[in-house]
Amino acid sequence: MTEPTDQAASPPDLRPHFHAASDANLARREERLLAHNRDVAQLARMTERLVHWAAVIESSDDAIFGKTLDGIITSWNYGAERLYGYAPEEIVGRSVAVLFPSDRPDEFDRIMTRLRRGERIDHYETVRVRKDGSSVDVSVTISPIRDPGGALIGVASIGRDITERKRLEQRRLAFAVAASHELKTPLTVQRIAVQALRRAVERGNMAALPRLLDRIEDGLSRQARLVDGLLEASRLERGALVARPTRFALDDLVRDTADQLRGLSHHDFLVAAPAPVEVVADRDQVGQVLVNLLANAVKYSPAADRVEIAVAADGWATVAVRDYGVGLAPVDQERVFEPFVRVEGEATAALSGMGLGLYLASQLAALQGGRLRVESAAGKGATFTLDLPLPPDAGQGRHSPAAPPRA
């Protein structure tokens, strides 16, 4: 018979193994939690970036929109709405071809073919059509959109309005062409006069010298006027011309200007200024405007014998210059203050010039806070009126209105 032992057999101690398993599970949970937190933080950063760039795109002045590889518009920012005139709900889901001019039927297919090949189109200058049917010059950059695996899934387009740049380029081209043409004419006249002068000297014909010298001097004066006009136009284009206002009597300046030009043509300058009129403006620039207006009146009324000038103050200080010449048709009145615009027709065919005088005058008037306007009819002369603001203390009822009177 087996005798009982003092200690009963005990089960194996599993505690160390339990603690090891618990620690491993806890470590795995902590690792998963850290990974989850990293994913959340990364997602938050990505969301923040997306929100940031969405705000940038939406507030951009450029027209930015997305489209499918078939050209269907999928997104549309405010810049696109402002440039093309369509609200997002009007254009999203439609083909981008609606923006293409009808006279460029192959452009859409050519661009989409390049994009499907994964090509990027940089600063492509073209024309697009707004909702109202008007055309706009644009520079577009079109980029393929790929998913994380590199597959092509769409297209992003950025468009910028370059109408003003195109306008300036065309103006500069017109500037260069007009300058070349107009400067060449007096040079040709002077060259012929110099050749004639040389022959006269060789033959001892001294009686011809004064006439030939006068011709050369006239050519040089004309060249100087052309160069001055070109330089003035260039400064205006660059915004380099500023007004230096002083207070002066406008009626006195009108009389002085008329006196300076009197005798240079057969026209008489009739000045009507019933009362003194003072303005605060750049006296030299206003004087240049008056010279241009009077010279223009003389030039376009060769058969007339007078130019009438009226100075008045009624809300604005006004100088109205009336001629009795060829006049302006309505279509010419709309363009007469643009650069390099000249009235065309039989009555003006023999008149030279670059079409800068009235443009310069209108821009100088604007520098003073005023403007030029015209009233005319073809064959019945024209009245060009300079409006300038009156000083605040010019008298009761003579404060400047919100805008100059309309023609």
User: In percent, how helical is the residue content?
Assistant: 40-55%
**Which H/E pattern describes the elements?**
HEEHHHEEEHHEHEEHEEHHEE
CATH structural class of the largest domain: Alpha Beta
Mean pLDDT: 79
Number of DSSP helical runs:
10
Biggest beta sheet attributes? 5 strands, antiparallel
CATH architecture of the largest domain: 2-Layer Sandwich
Number of domains: 3
- Give the termini separation: 139 Å
| Total strand segments | 12
Low-confidence region ranges: 50-57, 345-352, 396-407
Radius of gyration: 39 Å
Describe this structure in words.
The structure is a single chain. The protein is an alpha+beta fold. The chain folds into three domains: 60-161, Beta-Lactamase, CATH 3.30.450.20; 166-238, Helix Hairpins, CATH 1.10.287.130; 246-389, 2-Layer Sandwich (Heat Shock Protein 90). The chain is 44% helix and 21% strand. The strands form three sheets. Strands 2-1-5-4-3 form a five-stranded antiparallel β-sheet, with helices on both faces. A hairpin with a 1-residue loop joins β9 (306-314) and β10 (316-323). The N and C termini lie far apart (139 Å).
Mind sketching the topology for me?
Layout: H1 15-59, E1 63-67, E2 73-76, H2 78-84, H3 88-91, H4 107-116, E3 121-129, E4 135-146, E5 152-161, H5 163-203, H6 209-238, E6 246-249, H7 250-261, E7 268-272, E8 278-281, H8 283-299, E9 306-314, E10 316-323, H9 330-333, H10 357-367, E11 371-376, E12 382-389
Parallel strand pairs: 7-9
Antiparallel strand pairs: 1-2, 1-5, 3-4, 4-5, 6-8, 9-10, 10-12, 11-12
Helix pairs in contact: 5-6, 6-10, 7-8, 8-10
